[in-house]
Amino acid sequence: MSAGTATAELGTPMALHSATREPAEADRDHSLALLIGVCSVAFLLRLAFTWYILPHYGAARIYGTGSEPIQIGTAIAQGRGFTSLYGVPSGPTAWLPPVYPLVVAATFRLFGVSSMQSLWCLCIANIVCATLTTALIYRIGVRCFGPIVGFAASLLWAVDIGYIAYSVRIWESSLSALLATLAVLFYLHLRESPARRRDWVFYGLFWAFAALTNTVLLTLMPLSVIFLLYRKGRELRRYALAALVAFACALLPWCIRNYVVFHKVIPIRSNFGPNLWYGNHPGVQGPADEFLDPPHNPRELQSYLAMGDAAYCSSRQKMAFDFIRQNPAEFAHLTWARVVFFWTGAALTERLLPTCWLLLAVLAVLLMVRRHAVPEAVPFASALLFFPLPYYVTHAESFYRHPIEPVMGLLVAYACVALLDAGRHVVKAKSIANRSEQ
Predict the structure, then answer these.
(1) How far from the centroid of its chain's Cα atoms is residue 205's Cα?
(2) Nearest by Cα to 45 from 158, 151, 171, 162
(3) Is 217 in contact with 211 (CB distance < 8 Å)?
(4) Are residues 209 and 102 in contact, defined by beta-carbon separation less than 8 angstroms?
(5) pTM for this structure?
(6) How far apart (Å, rounded) are the C-alpha atoms in residues 324 and 330?
(7) Chain segment 363-408, per-residue pLDDT in tens
């Protein structure tokens, strides 16, 4: 066996086997023990971090990191409806999708507006979401790549301080990460299980809930649905129609509310235009420029208050489109800067690790395709290719990537294990060759 032959092992199927064989009883017990252990680590580390941060920073400072959902949640809890985006009377808004502000509002109704008890409740909810995400990462890893990858990826998610810090961020980030990971598992279930109408209806309802939580999550849906229908088109046509009806029916109440309130069609949220303007205007300073964001710009805030949510969003969208039409080269430059910033961050000295992370994730998808695991690669490819697109053209922040970090961790773990496996084969081949020569 030559070193070249050993290197070719990278092109052979690796541990995409666990879904096709029935694990032994001892394997199931061991897997369950690992799952409980890594979930316990994830929960306890986040709880300890929250226990330290909340008294140290105080409720007011932490609530300030989630300004918009906190302000809307406060308005709902006080009986003023889905209004007051920036904490001052400004009328109805569709700036955010409704799920997380409603979660905040329900918490405030139960435990007090902006109280420490409410803060603890919201943080515990984040911790529970992150712990469930740990379990899903492990399950997906075992199902697609084998137990080593499943354990490595879930442990990484459990102990990384960057991920742990989201436990005290009053935003939908933790819930979005859970939903993005669940989308992968849901897709795998539909692909591998017999087609049932009930499953597809739940699939449509799931995507509606995801859209009403974080609309960008919808970018993960089209490629998965297209691939499912391509594989079993005629068989699933009726079921896919049922899923579409469920999806539309679940979104309809919010769409009707927006039409009644604003007298125009706003399918879910209205802030695409302003975000496009904040990232594409004369004198923009970079991918994360917030100069024109109303909380940081009194003039923009006054414009928002005077015009109202819908008119302000429409005007800023028109201004952004005008700027892009007049400055296509600058728009291309700004877009590239946002692409780099989304994946690597701002500081040049801090880009090495995120860049390696991204390259390993891309390598993992390519390995899956090469190993004839295209169906498994579909949801992972969607996360890399389509999820960032809205941020490429509008406005980029480092925390926007958080919902797909569990998927990224799975890909990185898989790529590392595959490379180590290839290296082991190369060393073994060289050792055999040396013994043969002797």
Answers:
(1) 18
(2) 158
(3) yes
(4) no
(5) 0.91
(6) 8
(7) 999 999 988 788 889 999 999 999 999 999 998 887 899 999 999 9
